[in-house]
Amino acid sequence: MDLFSQSPEAPVLVIGGAGVDIVGRMKSELHSGTSNPSQIRSSFGGVARNVAENLARLGEAVNLISVVGEDENGERLLQGLQAAGVNTVGVLRTTQQVTGTYLAVVDSRGEYLFGLDDMRAIAELTREHILAHERLFKEASTLFIDANIPKDTLRTVMSLAKKRRLPVCADATSVALAPRLKPYLPRLTLITPNSAEAAVFFDPNIKVNTRRQALEAAKALVSMGVQIAIITLAEQGLCYATSETSGYIPAIRTEIVDPTGAGDALSATVIFALLNDIPLDDAVRLGVSAASLTLRHRGAVVPDLSLEKLYDQLVI
User: Fold this and answer.
1) Whole-angstrom distance, CA of residue 112 vs CA of residue 128
2) What is the pTM of this model?
C-alpha cells in the first residue's frame, strides 16, 4: 500500500508533546488515603518525543517540533534526543512554563490504572512558531502529529501539510484530546487510537471493547476518510483496516514491566516500515513486536531498538 510516496531519505517531521514521565508501579493493591509501597521511575516521554526517538533509533531522519521549559529537564531531554539522532532545531525553549510532566500509576501486574499530565508548556506552540519552521515541512517525507497540539496551531499544521501534500499520521493521545483530530479524519493517512480513544470518534452509544467492535470501528474510520486505521486493544492485540484489507493481530504474550510508550513504539514502527516499502500486514506485525519490546523495558523507548530486534519478536 503505497501511501508514502515521498523520498525515503527525507526526514519525518514529528510535532507534539515532550516531557518527563514518572511511573509508579504498585507492589500490592491500591489503598486510598495513605502511602502505597511502589517502584517509581522517571524518564523522558511525551507521544511526539517518543515517536521521534523510536524513528531515529530505527534509522530514520527525524525533525521534531515541540516545547520544553528553559530548565534542567528541558536541557537533558534535548540532549538525549540529539544523542539518539533527532534534529531538535524546531523545539521551542520557553520561560513561561516548566517542561511537561506525565504521572502514571500501574498495578502490580503492570496494567495501567490512571495517569495525570501537566502539558501546559505545549500551549506555547503557536502558529507563529510553526510558520517560522515551514522549511521543515518542505523537507519532510511524512508528518506525525499528536493531539497535544493546540487547536489553532493544529489548523496551521494541517494547512501546511496539505500545501506540501504530506501524508499525515496521528496519535489520538488521550480521550480528552482525541476530539481535536475529528475534523481532520479525511486528511489522515494513519491513525492509531486505543479502544477508548477510538470510541470518541463515534456515537456515544457505540462501544469499542471487543475484537469485533474494534474491527468494525477501524472500518468505520476508513469510511470517514482515514486511509489506515489501527485500533489497539491492550492484551487482546489490535485490529486494522484500509479500503482494501482488514485484519487482526494478537498481542505477544509478555511480562509487562512498564506500559508507558508501547503505543508510541507501535506507531513509529508502522511508519518506519511503510516508509521502507514493507507491506502493511508485516508493518503492523512489526509494530506489535515494538510494543512488546517496550512493555518489557523500564522506560518509554527501548534504547537498542533495531529492525533485527523487531524481527526476532515478530508475530507469524
Assistant:
1) 37
2) 0.94
Q: How far apart are the first and last CA of the chain?
A: 20
Q: What is the pLDDT of residue 205?
A: 81
- C-alpha dist (Å) from residue 179 to 15, 91, 175, 183, 198: 17, 25, 8, 8, 10
Give the C-alpha distances (Å, rounded to integers) separating 221 from 55, 96, 128, 180, 185: 25, 38, 31, 15, 8
pLDDT tens, position by position, 270-279: 999 999 999 9
Residues of the chain with pLDDT > 90: what percent?
85
How far is C-alpha 59 from the geometric centre of its chain's CA atoms? Answer: 17
What CATH number is given for 12-28+39-312 in this structure? 3.40.1190.20
Strand runs (DSSP E) across the chain, as ranges? Answer: 12-15, 19-26, 38-45, 62-65, 67-69, 86-87, 92-94, 100-106, 112-118, 142-146, 168-171, 190-191, 228-232, 238-241, 246-249
Contact 302, 236 (CB under 8 A): no
